[in-house]
Amino acid sequence: MTTGKINVSVENIFPLIKKFLYSDHEIFLRELVSNATDATLKLKHLTNIGEAKVEYGNPIIEVKIDKEGKKLHIIDQGLGMTAEEVEKYINQVAFSGAEEFLEKYKDSAKDSGIIGHFGLGFYSAFMVAEKVEIITKSFKDEPAAHWTCDGSPEFTLEASDKTSRGTEIVLHIAEDSLEFLEEGKIAGLLEKYNKFMPVPIKFGTRTEKIEQKKGEEVAPEDKDETFKTVEVDNIINNPNPAWTKQPTELSDEDYKSFYRELYPNQFEEPLFNIHLNVDYPFNLTGILYFPKMTGDLQIQKDKIQLYQNQVYVTDNVEGIVPEFLTMLKGVIDSPDIPLNVSRSYLQADGAVKKISNYITRKVADKLKSLFTENREDFEKKWNDVKIVLEYGMLSEPKFYEKAGAFTLYPTVDDQYFTLDELKEKIKDNQTDKDGKLVVLYASNKDAQHGYIAEAKAKGYEVLILDSPIISHLIQKLEADNENLTFTRVDSDHINNLIKKDEETISKLSDDEKEKLKTELETIISDKKYSVQLEALDSQSAPFSITQPEFLRRMKEMSQTGGGGMFGMGNMPEMYNLVVNTNHDLASSILNSSDKSHQQALVKQALDLAKLSQNLLKGEELTAFVKRSYELIK
């Protein structure tokens, strides 16, 4: 037996490991199972190239709890180590440059992604264990070794009588970490971090029913059964998840089945998936799913899982996946993402930027092919994915360039057009006298029903654009398309939305109009309504309320993160009250000698206009209902 001190320049690194490096104690299991996986896969490689003259077989990794003995075992059938290798890899390599590591990465050390990249993975065991043993036998024909360390720099290394190839790590769990002897806790960690590891992982056993053979002796409880109960290894992982296969090997059902495996509590099917598979200039595989979206941009985030060689790392993929795609679900696996650095470095890293650009391009190409191959199906799913695509057009120039080919603009009649198709469709009827093409849209079919009906009566197409960021997007589209403007149907009277050359003559003289305006402004005390007289068709509504497009749009953009919108999000609502001077009601108000009757007419007409814009509420609504009953007595 030999004893010695671990070669480490920091006086005692164990407290540092426990308190500083690993803020998240649970990752010790991920690290030890990852080491066991590496040892197994390395052996596979060596047997394949003929350097290891042993039978690889069907190795598994076993995680075992000994609650009574307060021990946790991680056992593999991999390469194993000789005493010399234990001395080299455990006592020296793991600690070389530890001081430099701590200094260099002190700001990012709390990110559990660093572990394993500096040979420190094994020592994460000391976060939860007061003593750690390694019992290991190499695939080479050499004696087994037994290493023990109690969390101080002293260790012992002696011969072992282990006869089977591989390594067993025994953790003597510390008093402050006894939760890691609970079956539920370990099962949860294996599920979280090791669900898709490439080597089968056994955690306990389970019973299974299999068909009985004729004449076979059976247990009493199985007497009347055609099946018998047997105990089998409880393998907790899927070593060959869908993303490790080629797209040609997978059916639609395979993709859906994998989605259910990733999100067992998700009952809705994904809308479609995108399989990522590239090996140059970086290595990346994965499957992204478009789920049904809500209008809330934040709620959906942190649903994509990042893996490195099938080991779970994090579900915070910001900086790796373009921000607009962080609302998707799925898996990305890449050994080429540097996890040992801070997020700010990650976002500036050239390789990571290439990965982000690749994912953007791949998603855009897939959406275009889905649109081209089955437009009808794509149209049906449009409302469930539009928020992601609109956000992408605003935030990623490369996506915006490609998105014109498949971004859709639905009408209130459920027809779908690309922007080019829409321009062609409306150019004859919706070009104003200055040569500008005016795209009319509504944000709510029910609330703006009257305005939509008026626009459709004139043969205009009206889009339904209702996402929370639509004001930002149409601002961008207007900037990039000369002579194109978007106007909401309730932003002005129908005659003014698309100004033509023809003008309607007013029945009232200029003096009468001035007098009418003064009367109205006296009766309507609410300063948020600006009276605007218009000579309209005599059949048009006498009073209507509009909200100027520019002000409303700036306000909306300010409320949804429009940056320098001069605090417009806090501005009070401002409306135009459009009064039709050619309607009989305008003349009745003007010519009324009974002031109280005049007042009642104005209030009733204003309330009706408010009602059509969903602006009549509370006390005003109660007064309107009461007044209406009195008028019909």
UniProtKB/TrEMBL annotation:
Keywords: ATP-binding, Chaperone, Nucleotide-binding. ATP binds at residues 31, 35, 76, 81, 96-97, 167, 343. GO terms for molecular function: ATP binding; ATP hydrolysis activity; ATP-dependent protein folding chaperone; unfolded protein binding. NCBIfam families: PRK05218.1 (NF003555). The gene is htpG. This is Molecular chaperone HtpG. PROSITE patterns: HSP90 (PS00298). InterPro entries: HATPase_C_sf, Heat_shock_protein_90_CS, HSP90_C, Hsp90_fam, Hsp90_N, Ribosomal_Su5_D2-typ_SF. Pfam families: HATPase_c_3, HSP90. Signal peptide: none annotated. It comes from Flavobacterium macacae. Belongs to the heat shock protein 90 family.
